[in-house]
Design goal:
Helix content is 87%, strand content 0%. With 62 residues, it is mainly alpha-helical. The chain has one domain.
Length: 62
């Protein structure tokens, strides 16, 4: 389905992309720790809101 050149390109691209992402994260880790201290509170709020919506939806359709 794919040619050998396309598979090689995809493999090289995936490896280089992963390396750049790790390098970028390591470079910005101090900024992330400073600006995103309470991000887990927002994530918890979103999860609770989705759970409440699902519970209400299933409760109203019974």
């Amino acid at each position: 389905m794919f040619s050998k050149g396309q598979l090689i390109f995809a493999g090289v691209f995936a490896i280089i992309f992963a390396i750049i992402m790790v390098w970028s994260y390591k470079k910005d880790v101090k900024l992330h720790q400073f600006y995103y201290k309470k991000v887990w509170v927002v994530a918890l709020g979103i999860i609770i809101a989705i759970a409440l919506f699902a519970i209400l939806t299933f409760a109203l359709h019974e």
